[in-house]
TrEMBL record:
Catalytic activity: Hydrolysis of terminal non-reducing N-acetyl-D-hexosamine residues in N-acetyl-beta-D-hexosaminides
Enzyme class per UniProt: hydrolase
SUPFAM superfamilies noted in UniProt: (Trans)glycosidases
Transmembrane segments: 15-38
Key word Cell membrane present: no
Keyword Hydrolase: yes
Organism expressing this protein natively: Bifidobacterium panos
Family to which this protein belongs: Belongs to the glycosyl hydrolase 3 family.
Protein name: beta-N-acetylhexosaminidase
InterPro entries: GH, Glyco_hydro_3_N, Glyco_hydro_3_N_sf, NagZ_Beta-hexosaminidase
PANTHER family reported for this sequence: BETA-HEXOSAMINIDASE (PTHR30480:SF13), BETA-HEXOSAMINIDASE-RELATED (PTHR30480)
Domain Glycoside hydrolase family 3 N-terminal: residue ranges: 90-413
EC number: 3.2.1.52
Signal peptide as annotated in the record: none
Amino acid sequence: MSITPSERERRTTRVLRIVAFMMVTALVVTMALLGLIWQHNRQQSAPIDEKSSAASATPAAPVTLERSAAPQPDTSPEGKARRAVAAMSVEERVGQLVMAPLFAGSDPSTLADFISSRHVGSVLIIGNWTDGTASVRTATDALQSYASENNKLIMATDQEGGLVQHLTGPGFDTMPSAIEQGSMTTDQLRQSAAVWGGQLNQAGINVDLAPVMGTVTVDRASNAPIGALSRDFGLDANGTSEHGAAFVQGMRDAGVGAAVKHYPGLGAVTGNTDFTADGITDTTTTLDGAEIGAFHRVIADAQPAMVMMSLATYQAIDGSVPAAFSSAIIDGELRGKQGYQGVVISDSLSAAAVSGTPADQLGVRLVEAGGDLACIGANDYVAPILDGLNARAAADPAFAAKVTRSATRVMTLKYQPGLAK
């Protein structure tokens, strides 16, 4: 069969394409082989130190993402207090809000269960302790032994001078009355208070429930709680604030806290709140008056450890309840307007002035109003006050939050001098 010219041309084209493909493939393979041979020869001829350097090269460190620094814990007393309280049970927090009494002649072991099992965090050394600093120190050391190593007790007493000096005997000076202290210069009073505070420190006392900051505005003899007992400085409001600050500072110089009392003042009532519910309504004290202003200046300038609330009723401020139960006075004025965020302690809740309130509600009403520490002057009130606080905290989350805030303020006070760790 004959082949046409067009068929011959197509066959020739296919042959040429095949030949071209084979030649390109051979060229690529040849170049690849030459590259391998060149690389092998280069490695064989490289200097010894270059090989060594390549072999010993340290691999690059892995890349890490930069992170922001972890937040550091707040090491202030308040920061430590918040963490400590967060780790407490409700019962432990409630215990920090109670100051139980130990009377002269009583065995410290009578409070052992309250401190170790019910977490009471403060003790009031009360009565006529006449055997001197060593005797009081024995009692305070025993009481502290019942407390946790990391959370020791606030140990308080009433050591004003004159008729109100609970601790006497060897090692304790006989303190002049407050009205005599008012005749000193402020420098003299500060120096004297530092001496008296040093004696308290030696006895294991870390808070003095003094000075009285009331300014007597009525006949002294008719003012049963203060003027008749010479418990005030005998000065006007300005002099009272200056001498009160000197007393607070002198105590601090000795390592002892002070509690100014009885806010907003007992200088205009006739009845003594410890013994009666009559004659304890103040009709003259106002929020912008000089008498309450004396407290405010000392709180701002001297920064006392505590403010003690009066059990009188103040008609021109909040005539419905005693000051210790008044949110208008504590949360509204003292904390809100004046900015005080320290410990607010009550006057003794076993006093006659509040005897109409059920015992298990006394601490509740104090904390509801913004107070922190229930001072108790009779042993049979301790358990009911603890029970009432615990019951209300268990039933009312809003109240439990107030208990937490109060416990934090008390623990902050403890961290400041190292009572808590």
